[in-house]
Amino acid sequence: RKAINYIHQKNDYGNTQIAVSFEDDTKVNIINTLIASSEAIKSDWRASQEIILQELLKLGIYDEHFDQQILGKQLELSTSALSKRLKSSNIKVYLRTRNCALNLLKNAGEELN
Fold first, then answer.
1. E-assigned strands of 9-63?
2. 77 vs 45, 52, 63, 74, 83, CA distance in Å?
3. pTM across the whole model
4. Reduced to 3 states, what is the DSSP secondary structure of residue 10?
5. Rounded to a whole number, what is the distance in angstroms from the first to the last CA of the chain?
């Protein structure tokens, strides 16, 4: 319920629809801020930029470190076109932020057990 209330209070103009809640308020605030930041990045993506994330997921990749040549071949994009799309989408920052939030959440879960 606390996470739902958080979303209602701080939905960042409709961009943030995910939040967590548990006893450690400091970690909760950090995780929710990381989630909101990544959602803000994603909210500016065009369809062509969303395709990058979809293709990475198809390849089983959810990390900022990936082989751009493989991704470029899958998307049938030149190195230059892919580079521009990656830069304009900030997808590496998005993935880094999401993974940081995930790792903090996993650590918090382990501490609770």
1. none
2. 18, 11, 20, 8, 9
3. 0.83
4. coil
5. 21
